[in-house]
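Minutes, project check-in
Item: structure for the 82-residue chain
Input as provided by the requester:
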Amino acid sequence: MGVVEETRQVLQDFLAPELREIRGVLSAIDKRLDSQDKRLDATEEANRVRYESIVQRLEQIQQSFAFDKRISSLESKKRRSA
């Protein structure tokens, strides 16, 4: 056997199976990452919906208390009495 053939045989006997195993591990990791991405997307969407709901509710509360009108009214009264 020549040096080239021996080198080829060593590569086929040792490296090829190792590379297949590494490829399999990487494929499994890739699937897990895809799964995590989908879960994160769902979580982000749920958080966005909650945030928008909270903001909307706060706007309703602010309008119901009419803080800006009350403050303006108090400022007007204060100016008149001064």
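Outcome recorded: Helices lie at 3-65, 67-81.
No further action items on this chain.
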